[in-house]
Amino acid sequence: MEVVIVPDAKAGGELIAEAMARLLRRKPDALLGVATGSTPLPIYQALTAKARSGAVDASRARIAQLDEYVGLPADHPESYRSVLRREVLEPLGLGMEAFMGPDGTAEDIPGACEAYDKALAEAGGVDLQLLGIGTDGHIGFNEPCSSLASRTRIKTLTEQTRIDNARFFGGDIEQVPHHVITQGIGTILEARHLVLLATGEGKADAVAATVEGPVAAVCPASALQLHPHATVVVDESAASKLKHADYFRHTYHNKPDWQGI
Ligand SMILES: N[C@@H]1[C@@H](O)[C@H](O)[C@@H](COP(=O)(O)O)O[C@@H]1O
């Protein structure tokens, strides 16, 4: 696992957007796995700026969703499908034909989950999967004690996650669904490159457990330690509880530029 400590969220966004741009230059129809939440927004802004300036052609990129609320109509402004359309697809000039995601409104939820795992595999697998992290160490919506081998499935949110996400629903926790579909940890680990961005002091404990703690289902993000190409990008605040921060700084600063992340 590589840990990159950046000065702030904007720098993290720029670094990751450049890695995505490099990928798209090499593979124009790369399948990009995208995450929701506030953290990845600087990535999407930086990637959009690159596409608009002509630094990268994203017109053939394909976008895959990480997770979704169950029961929110697809056109609800806070369904993750709507959020990704707003924050990723439209800014990049991509239509919904470039998009794949699980159907949170399906009558047969297990069937929809299985179909999504199958669709991801048939699409050739995710080339680069962006991840945020919950304050409890969740990735996607894999809450603590999710199986590290899990596939896409329905999960019940913890109260903490519903409290954390209430800000997207006008601060009203009653509006936050209890159930979600999330790519499983086993599904996420099949992506070729995992890139987790964490910013702010509120993520410092989760980052320390992810990077320096044991691989344990109680901290789902710690599963990244099992992946051959995982990059954790953190700002100074999110890095504040890392014991090996100096080592991470040293290795990254001495890395040849061509290597990227
Ligand atoms: N399902 C999403 C996660 O994918 C995201 O990582 C997390 C953190 O969000 P934020 O980046 O806003 O802190 O929120 C939600 O739970």
TrEMBL record:
**Annotated EC:** 3.5.99.6
Highest taxon of the lineage: Bacteria
- Annotated keywords: Allosteric enzyme, Carbohydrate metabolism, Hydrolase
| InterPro entries the UniProt entry points to | Glc/Gal-6P_isomerase, Glucosamine6P_isomerase, Glucosamine6P_isomerase_CS, NagB/RpiA_transferase-like
| Record site feature (Part of the allosteric site), residues | S146, R153, K155, T156
Q: How is its activity regulated?
A: Allosterically activated by N-acetylglucosamine 6-phosphate (GlcNAc6P).
Gene3D superfamilies, alphabetized: 3.40.50.1360
Is Hydrolase among the key words of this record? yes
Q: In which pathway does it act?
A: Amino-sugar metabolism; N-acetylneuraminate degradation; D-fructose 6-phosphate from N-acetylneuraminate: step 5/5
Active site residues per record = D67, D136, H138, E143
Q: Where is the Glucosamine/galactosamine-6-phosphate isomerase domain?
A: 10-225
Is the keyword GTP-binding assigned to this protein?
no
Q: Which family does it belong to?
A: Belongs to the glucosamine/galactosamine-6-phosphate isomerase family. NagB subfamily.
The family database entries (HAMAP family) matched by this protein are listed as: GlcN6P_deamin
Q: What does this protein do?
A: Catalyzes the reversible isomerization-deamination of glucosamine 6-phosphate (GlcN6P) to form fructose 6-phosphate (Fru6P) and ammonium ion.
Name of the molecule in the record = Glucosamine-6-phosphate deaminase
